[in-house]
Amino acid sequence: MTDREIRRELRLLKGYALLTTLLLGGLALSAFRHSPAREKFTEIDVERINVVEPDGSLRMVISNRPRSIGPIYKGKPFGYPGGGRPGIIFFNDEGTENGGLTFEGRRNPDGSYSASTHMSFDQFDQDQVLNLDYAEENGARRTGISVDDRASVDIHDMVLERDSIMKITDTLARARALRQWAAPRNGVPLAARRLFLGRDQAKAAVVNLFDPQGRPRLRMIVDSLGTPSLQFLDEGGKVTARYGP
């Protein structure tokens, strides 16, 4: 091959390389510009999904047990670590947990079993106040809706105070401090059940109403045999009036 022929072949190779580069670049740019804003999947296996706001703050977490999230307050973990709440956890505009859905159930080697499903909605900067629950252990089953009152105390401050108390080495002093920590604030309990509507472990359909201190005061019951009754209770839990057969 002559020198002229070699130079001609080199020019052809350079032109081919340039043309190929331009074509590949154009295809890549076109694919990037026309890529869909969302993907569609027929099926996906995943251990955890984080739904986030544009700034990256959490809005919802869906996860299995090992990858489940612990409590979050304004974007920061507190209280206890994750790994124990398979299900869905919700977060408010400030990145603080404000409810969720959790579930579990298992049979043990000895044949005993337990199962539960819990869906709750939290008071602002506090814990759950509206709950939907199913809980069963070896046939003893309770299902219902409950409404709770919570003191207007920041849950983050409460947990930090409790954690500080738990570091007290004197057991008597620690127990005394915990009792004081759990006591009502200005006469208001930290938590008080106000209503339960559901089916109890005695197989009765019940409506229980409680006073602001969490004491049962009125019960409407249809027992496991179908017998209805209405009961009024005093502050000590004694039935003061009963209506029914």
Topology:
Blueprint: H1 3-33, E1 48-52, E2 58-63, E3 72-73, E4 76-77, E5 87-91, E6 97-107, E7 113-122, E8 128-137, E9 140-150, H2 155-166, H3 171-182, E10 191-199, E11 205-210, E12 216-222, E13 228-233, E14 239-243
Antiparallel strand pairs: 1-2, 2-5, 3-4, 5-6, 6-7, 7-8, 8-9, 9-10, 10-11, 11-12, 12-13, 13-14
Helix pairs in contact: 2-3
Can you walk through the features of this model?
This protein has 245 residues and is an alpha+beta fold. The chain folds into two domains: 1-33; 48-201, no CATH class. The chain is 22% helix and 39% strand. It contains three helices and 14 strands. The chain has helices spanning 3-33, 155-166, 171-182, and strands at residues 48-52, 58-63, 72-73, 76-77, 87-91, 97-107, 113-122, 128-137, 140-150, 191-199, 205-210, 216-222, 228-233, 239-243. The strands form two sheets. It has a twelve-stranded antiparallel β-sheet, with no helix packed on it. The chain has a two-stranded antiparallel ribbon with strand order 3-4. Helix 2 runs antiparallel to helix 3 (171-182). The longest helix is centred in the first third of the chain and has 31 residues, at 3-33. It is elongated. The protein starts with a helix and ends with a strand. The mean pLDDT is 90.
